[in-house]
């Protein structure tokens, strides 16, 4: 492995419920028009969150449940658990399947972590969402369609990198994920123009790689 080699997530399990049982629907807080759900697990949570947001842009679905599992995929409760579960609700199986297909496609072909060191032991996520869906826009407190920089790295790298990202472009903090999160990483969602979000991602990337190269250099 080399610096900037992609580290891709794997989808571990997928299931559909065409007509959700009433008690489960109540606990998921489904609306009367939300009859069906689609769910999946994957082994990288931040890619999973990005994917379920993508689903809301490609189908008539809403994210009704999304959680990270503590300690990450290396300490998962089972071989199909990974570190993330997402549940999408829609009016019928066709819409929920369309949403899930969009999520899976993004996981397989687009969003991924990258290696910050030659051994691949330090990984980071610096992904520009050019047009947010209904899920992450709500998390950030912006309107759907606004761009977002999704930035995640190990604890120290994340704090140092977020500071660099905020200084590199006209972006503002939507959400700060102070370390340690459930999977012992940290980061932020930043908002701004698409070009600013891209510049913020690039600054975060360069900073995290710089920390990996010189972890104890604090002079500059």
Automatic annotation (TrEMBL):
GO molecular function, one term: structural molecule activity
Signal peptide: none
Localization annotation: Bacterial microcompartment
Lineage: superkingdom: Bacteria
GO cellular component: bacterial microcompartment
Domain BMC circularly permuted, chain residue ranges per copy: 112-215
Family annotation (InterPro entries): BMC_CP (IPR044870), BMC_dom (IPR000249), CcmK-like_sf (IPR037233), EutL (IPR030983), EutL_PduB (IPR009193)
One Pfam family it belongs to: BMC
Keywords: Bacterial microcompartment
NCBIfam families: microcomp_EutL (TIGR04502), PRK15405.1 (NF011934)
Protein name: Microcompartment protein EutL
Species, as recorded: Formimonas warabiya
């Amino acid at each position: 492995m080399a610096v900037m080699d992609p580290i891709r997530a794997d989808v571990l399990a997928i299931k559909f419920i065409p007509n959700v049982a009433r008690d489960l629907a109540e606990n998921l807080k489904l609306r009367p028009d939300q009859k069906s759900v689609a769910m999946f697990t994957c082994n990288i949570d931040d890619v999973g969150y990005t994917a379920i947001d993508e689903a809301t842009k490609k189908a008539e679905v809403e994210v009704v449940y999304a959680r990270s599992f503590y300690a990450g995929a290396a300490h998962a409760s089972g071989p199909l658990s990974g570190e993330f579960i997402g549940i999408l609700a829609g009016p019928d199986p066709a819409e929920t399947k369309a949403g899930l297909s969009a999520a899976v496609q993004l996981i397989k072909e687009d969003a991924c972590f990258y290696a910050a060191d030659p051994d691949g032991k330090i990984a980071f996520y610096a992904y520009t969402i050019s047009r947010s869906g209904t899920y992450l826009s709500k998390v950030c407190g912006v309107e759907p369609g606004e761009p977002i920089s999704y930035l995640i790295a190990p604890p120290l790298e994340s704090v140092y990198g977020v500071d660099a990202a905020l200084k590199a472009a006209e972006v503002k903090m939507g959400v700060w994920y102070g370390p340690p999160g459930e999977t012992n990483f940290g980061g932020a969602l930043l908002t701004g123009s698409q070009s600013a979000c891209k510049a913020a991602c690039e600054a975060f990337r360069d900073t995290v790689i710089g920390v990996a190269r010189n972890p104890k250099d604090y002079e500059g």
